[in-house]
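Handout, page 2. Input:
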Amino acid sequence: MTQEILAQRLWTAAQKDSDLRTRLRTTYRGRVDVCDALWWRANPLSPTPAGRPDPAAELIDLKAAVYRLHTDPEPLVEFVDPITLRTVYATEAEHQLRTRMREQTQEDAALDAVLTAAESGTEAGFEAGSAADRPAQQAARRRDGGARAGVNAGPDAEGEDTAGAAGAAGAAGRTDGPGVRAEFGLVAGGPWRRRRFAALL
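Output:
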């Protein structure tokens, strides 16, 4: 699953789940609203349904100002680079572009952290779906874990019965392979790579 698809599904789920919105906003470290950031990741350069423009669109105008031909050379202005702390010389347009690109990189990194947490399951309480639906989701995960335990039951190469271990792994919400864990609403749907997005559809 791409980050764009995951962002769209989290945004869609958050519109109906105030608890999910709260967890998203707690996890997110960016300067804009996390729901807006999710929308722009899934729909680059498109205004949100509320009409807020994507801040990344500003970069297009700033780049055009830097790279267009000028009849007279722009004067160079002295700046202190906030990362290297060195004095640099650039035009005002170049300085604005550098500053805005640095801010956009920070915003992207903040949202990447939220999406990575959703995929890796590092935020145990970060689960999509309404509060009323969660008991049903948890029961479904327990049934899913029991089904996997039945498939995997039987003696292994050493003659050991692995059914108990498989059942415990399923009940803990662990997937059969790499992917998004059940705590985030993405639940293993079968052996190895087959998964479904149970809570957000």
